[in-house]
Every structure is written in C-alpha cells, then in structure tokens.
C-alpha cells in the first residue's frame, strides 16, 4: 500500500467533471450560477421563496415516474372540490334529469321543419359482383382513345359479327339462346340460329336419341333354371318388360326364393306395382326366423359381417358375440397360432 493513499481514510467528496455542451450553446444558469455549482441548500432556498400557488404549479409539471406503482397512483389527485357525501344513485339520476330539463336547447341557424332531411343522404355503393350480365372475367379493350376507328369498324362490320360480339360481351338480352351459346363456344351463326338481332325466334329442334334395345330376357327359361337351382344363374334382369304378366313375375320371385345362387333380381318398370311389391317385402322377420338366423351365424366360423337388424335382444347379442369370435379366429390365423387356442376361444364363449 502506498503512503499517499490510506485505506481507512475518511470518505472524500468526488466531483464529476461537467458534461460537454454543444458548440455555440452555453450551459443553463440559475441566478448567474450553473447547475453543477448549486448545492441542495441553494435549491431549498429557491423553493422557500416560492408562493403556494407557484409550488402547486411546479408540482403539477412533474409526475412520479415509478414503474412499480400502479397507473392509478402515478397521477396526482387534482380535484380540489370537497366530497358532497356518500354515493346515492337515485339522487344522481334525479339531478341529471332535472338539469337536462332546465338546460336550454342549442340555437339553430336553420329553423326545424318536420319531414325535411338535412345533410347528405346516404346512398349505398353498388356491388360490382351483383350487376346483371357481368362476366366472371371481364374483357378489357385498349383502344388508345381512338373512337373514330372504333366507330368506323363497328359500322363496317356485318351484323353477323356484331351478334358474336354481343354474345362474347355477355349481352344475352339482345340474343336468343342459340346465338348466345354459339358465341361463347366460338361457333359461327347460321340460318338455324339467326344472323341478325331482329330475326324471328325459332324453337330449336329436339335431339333424336336412339332407342334403347328391348329386353329380350326369357322369363320362362329363367323360372325353370331358378327352380332347378342352376349355378350359372346369379342375376336376372326383366327391367322395362311391361308385357310380362303379374302371375309370371310372381312365379319368378317364388323361384328366386328357392334358388341358392341368385344374387340380384331387377324388376324396374314392369307390370308389378309398388303396392304388390311391398307385400312381398320381409319387413318383420319374426322371433322364430331371427333365432334360426342366429344359430346359423353361430355355426359359421368365417362370417365377419351381417347386414340384418334384429328385433330380438338375444339375437342381436349372440350374433355380435359370434362375429367377435370370428374376428378373433382371423387374428389368430394371421399370427399363426395353433388350433388348440381356437378351441379355447369356443370354450370360453360357451361357458
């Protein structure tokens, strides 16, 4: 430790150097002294010479800048009026109502007259998307403000081309339907559609379509094959065969019920009506039929789905359990499990 400095010496007052001022400007002074030359005693002496009004004005120029305080406490209370008492809502509303009645109306330069609107009347803007006849992709023509050439071209153009131009521009009210669609598709106008705006409107000729071939299904042969349970007969179609009698159609339906290989039977637009076909529909199977179907599903070990809604609670429950067992068999077969585990599943289901 050097002799000039003492570690235990008394604290000395350190004066920081004055801040550099801008070139051409002098430091602010108060009563001929700079701010760095003023002590706290001098500032207190200055404040003691101020009047209460001047102190209030000086205090109102400064707000507490403390971020830890809530915003409601950073601003000083500037209300000098004494409180009138506790808050009473009814008296306040009564006071506001009376003061509003006593307040005079504003003076108007123009006297009031009923039925006359003042100011600018609001007019809604037109939506460009809702304009009739507007195309999705409007065509823009750059004519360089040469109206004479445009008028000359329109005067010399034939009326047939003007019809196409009107169709392209979306002026469908000037054209008939055939002219409008021919112009959009790029087809030329001919005598059938009309080449002028004042042409007679004619109805377009109906398109002749070839008739569908008649259904040549042999109903009697189908009945015989279905009764014999032929494996080749899986689909029978007698649509649009109105000359087939109802008795033959009923015989065909009865033979289809006896067949075990038929998958589809089409009877659209035939002599049989909906009222008669509704009676052949099995809407309610019955308890005995549902039980037979339930036993058949339980005996089948490969069935995974049944598209029948059962009315009996027991049938629904046992069929769902049988399908779950079949799904489990499929899972074990995919994993390569032994058949003994399949038997365990059956024993667990029956127990």
From TrEMBL:
One of its GO terms (cellular component) is myofibril. Residues 74-85 have a biased composition (Polar residues). It is found in: Cytoplasm, Cytoskeleton. Residues 55-88 are annotated as: Disordered. The keyword Transcription does not apply. GO terms for biological process: actin filament organization; myofibril assembly; pointed-end actin filament capping. GO terms for molecular function: tropomyosin binding. The keyword Lyase does not apply. Keywords: Cytoplasm, Cytoskeleton. Residues 55-64 have a biased composition (Acidic residues). PANTHER family: TROPOMODULIN, TROPOMODULIN, ISOFORM N. This is Tropomodulin. It comes from Litomosoides sigmodontis. The lineage of its organism: Eukaryota, Metazoa, Ecdysozoa, Nematoda, Chromadorea.
């Amino acid at each position: 430790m050097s002799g000039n400095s003492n570690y235990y010496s008394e604290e000395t007052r350190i004066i920081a150097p004055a801040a550099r001022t801008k070139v051409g400007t002098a430091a602010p002074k108060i009563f001929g002294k700079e701010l760095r030359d003023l002590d706290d005693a001098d500032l207190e002496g200055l404040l003691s010479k101020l009047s209460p009004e001047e102190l209030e004005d000086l205090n109102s120029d400064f707000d507490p800048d403390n971020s830890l305080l809530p915003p409601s406490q950073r601003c000083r209370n500037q209300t000098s009026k004494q409180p009138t008492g506790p808050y009473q809502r009814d008296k306040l509303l009564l006071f506001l109502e009376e003061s509003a009645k006593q307040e005079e109306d504003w003076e108007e330069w123009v006297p009031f007259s009923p039925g006359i609107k003042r100011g600018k009347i609001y007019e809604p803007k037109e939506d460009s998307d809702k304009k009739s006849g507007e195309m999705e992709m409007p065509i823009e023509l750059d004519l360089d403000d040469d109206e004479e050439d445009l008028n000359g071209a329109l005067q010399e153009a034939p009326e047939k081309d003007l019809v196409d131009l009107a169709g392209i521009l979306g002026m469908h009210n000037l054209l008939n339907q055939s002219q409008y669609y021919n112009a959009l598709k790029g087809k030329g106008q001919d005598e059938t559609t009309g080449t002028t705006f004042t042409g007679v409107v004619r109805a377009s000729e109906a398109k002749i379509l070839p008739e569908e071939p008649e259904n040549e299904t042999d109903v009697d042969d189908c009945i015989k094959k279905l009764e014999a349970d032929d494996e080749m007969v899986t689909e029978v179609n007698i649509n649009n065969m109105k000359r087939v009698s109802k008795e033959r159609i009923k015989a065909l339906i009865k033979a289809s019920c006896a067949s075990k290989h038929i998958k589809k039977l089409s009877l659209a637009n035939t002599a049989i009506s909906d009222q008669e076909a509704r009676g052949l529909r099995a809407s309610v199977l019955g308890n005995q039929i549902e039980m037979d179907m339930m036993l058949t599903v339980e005996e089948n070990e490969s069935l995974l789905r049944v598209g029948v809604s059962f009315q009996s609670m027991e049938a629904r429950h046992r069929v769902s359990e049988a399908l779950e067992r079949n799904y489990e068999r499929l899972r074990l077969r995919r994993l390569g499990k032994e058949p003994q585990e399949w038997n365990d599943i059956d024993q667990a289901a029956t127990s």
